[in-house]
Amino acid sequence: MKCSYHPGYQMALPGGHPFPIGKFPLLKDRLLAEGVLTPCDILQPDPVDRQTLELVHTADYLNKLESSGLSMAEQRRLGIPWSDSLWLRSRLASGGTLLAARAALDSGLSGNLAGGTHHAFADHGEGFCVLNDVAIAIAQLRIEEAIDRALVIDLDVHQGNGTAAIFENVEEVFTFSMHGERNYPSVKMRSKLDVGLPDRLDDAGYLAALQMHLPMVLAAAKPDIAFYLAGVDVASGDRYGRLSLTEEGIRLRDREVIGTVRGSSIPLVIVLAGGYAETRARTAALHAHAFREAVAYERSRQGRTQVPQRPSTDEGPLDDAENSAARMLRQHAEPNSVIGNPHGDNETECGEIDEQRPNALRSDEE
């Protein structure tokens, strides 16, 4: 499995900053140490050029990023102070997703050990997201006619508002976001399908919702390529997540997505998105599951002539929780529930949402 990585994904941030910038080299080192990846599997991207960036982002916004032109208010909204390193890092990470997408079209499966910056809009950044790497990759591949249709499977705990806004009126790009309904952002954009989840949802309820929606999404999207934003801020105890998935639940989630997409012979790109565990090492450990599951699936696929549309769950708690999952799904799918409702039918009031984005000036992480 080929994965993009560049030492420039790591950069200096002010002391006490809550973004776990150190997770990127930690994840790469862990995957190499475990043998999930080999040094030959690592692809080193180049920064995305201005012409490619302009397929998604406005010239005014890019001019500000190039020249330290962001106001203090814009930097507070972004959550990270501007620097030359940030500008370079953002273009490198976007280049990593584009490089991984090309690899996926060639081999079926790839990843970027960064990316998933889904809060970046065409004309501004927010929520630690400067450039929208997935949108940039899709736009460039469509310009090249390497693809026509694309699917974004966004399972970060926060709605992919920037991606949704960028592709709202692009019929060929299907955006699917399954997120905490009462979490950031308070004002949601309109994905092709938004599935809002209640606070404290556990493994069984989460997996039941995913299994209900994902096959329908694939059928509707008919994609030439899929991008999986495998955010791990769904984990129980995440500082900004508010859901209650166990580590095993995250592993089974990743297995479900990988098996369903690759079982349909759709090229798949895995990117990281968010995660705010108690330490950077813990965050990297949770991110590693998606890549372990991807490599395991591809190895098993090579050894059999038929691949089931859904991966087996006999290694996890899902078999023992089928009835529980069904009950929980029914419980949360009653009228006025947030699970499964299109964005337009969402009755949650913004005033009830407790914003859970980190304060960039303080951090409890050691």
CATH class: Alpha Beta
The main β sheet shows up as: 8 strands, parallel
How much helix, percentage-wise, in residues? 25-40%
Q: What string, H for helix and E for strand, traces the elements in order?
A: EHEHHHHEHEHEEHEHEHH
CATH homology-level superfamily: Histone deacetylase domain
Q: Tell me the fraction of residues in β-strands, as a range.
A: 5-15%
CATH fold naming: Arginase, Chain A
Radius of gyration: 19 Å
Number of domains: 1
Please state the second-level CATH architecture: 3-Layer(aba) Sandwich
Low-confidence stretches: 305-366
Care to describe what's here?
The protein is of the alpha/beta class and 366 residues long. It has a single domain (2-352), classed as Arginase, Chain A (3-Layer(aba) Sandwich). The protein contains 11 helices and 8 strands. The protein has helices at residues 23-34, 50-53, 59-66, 72-78, 84-107, 133-143, 161-166, 203-221, 247-263, 280-302, 322-332, and strands spanning 2-4, 42-43, 109-112, 150-154, 173-180, 193-197, 225-229, 268-271. Strands 2-1-3-8-7-4-5-6 form an 8-stranded parallel beta sheet, sandwiched between helices. The protein is globular.
Compact overview of the structure:
This protein is α/β, with parallel strands linked by helices and 366 residues long. Helices cover 39% and strands 10% of the residues. It has a single domain, classed as Arginase, Chain A, CATH 3.40.800.20.
